[in-house]
């Protein structure tokens, strides 16, 4: 799976979990997700969606603010679990 594919899937997940984010607003891989409207409920949604989309189970240590900071940090976490 390419980085671009992972980023596209993660962007789709983030958009679903940040309902106040307008569809036309671009998301860059290093944008702070909190600044885009991510809250605690959205973070839980991202956990569930990422685990389903990538068939992974995030460890407790990955459930940190740092993991959910940006699409790049989410990608780096997902990559740890992919073969």
User: Which percent bin holds the helix content?
Assistant: 40-55%
C-alpha Rg (nearest Å): 12 Å
Strand content: under 5%
What's the count of strands?
Answer: 0
Silhouette:
globular
Mean pLDDT across all amino acids: 95
Order of helices and strands: HHH
Major β-sheet annotation: none
Stretches where pLDDT is under 50 for at least 5 consecutive residues are: none
SS-based class: mainly alpha
Which oligomeric state applies? single chain
Number of helices: 3
End-to-end gap: 10 Å
Question: What is the topological layout?
Answer:
Blueprint: H1 3-17, H2 40-54, H3 71-81
Helix pairs in contact: 1-2, 1-3
Could you describe the 3D structure shown?
By secondary structure, the chain is mostly helical. The protein has helices spanning 3-17, 40-54, 71-81. Helix 1 (3-17) runs antiparallel to helix 2.
In a nutshell, what does this entry contain?
The chain contains three helices and no strands.
Main traits of this protein?
83 residues, mainly alpha, 3 helices, 0% strand
């Amino acid at each position: 799976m390419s980085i671009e594919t992972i980023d596209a899937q993660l962007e789709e997940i983030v958009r679903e979990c940040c309902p106040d984010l307008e569809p036309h607003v671009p998301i860059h891989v290093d944008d702070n997700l909190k600044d885009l409207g991510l809250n605690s409920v959205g973070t839980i949604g991202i956990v569930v969606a990422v685990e389903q989309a990538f068939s992974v189970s995030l460890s407790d240590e990955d459930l940190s603010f740092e993991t959910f900071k940006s699409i790049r940090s989410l990608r780096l976490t997902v990559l740890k679990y992919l073969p």
